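fyi for ur records
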Amino acid sequence: MLKKNVKGVTLMEAFLSAFIFIISVAAIFSTLSSLRKPAVDNEQAVGAALAMRNVLEDLRSRVDNRDLGYDTSDLSVAGNPHGPIRITSGSTTYTIYYNVSIDSATGARQVDANASWPDAL
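which gave:
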């Protein structure tokens, strides 16, 4: 015996719902993949900051009042720019250059460092 009020899904409705599902899944994957690059960039920027901090701490540990006046010192103004210093952390190699300047008022040395690294993606 046939029932008159049986509800079902037509073939067209099944195709439409599958199409909507595929489009929404593609949008989610596209969003997730676009979030990966900024995260990698931030990780590399933090790695560069740590590498530069290590270079500056190494320079600070080698400060010797007898050595500051010579042009061969790592803290001499005459050797600008100093570097390249290459530091590898994980799979990224950072290249660091630094400049030394002397504050005219206090005579203190100031070190400005720059780091570069290859783009991961």
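The longest strand covers residues 92-102. thats all i got for now
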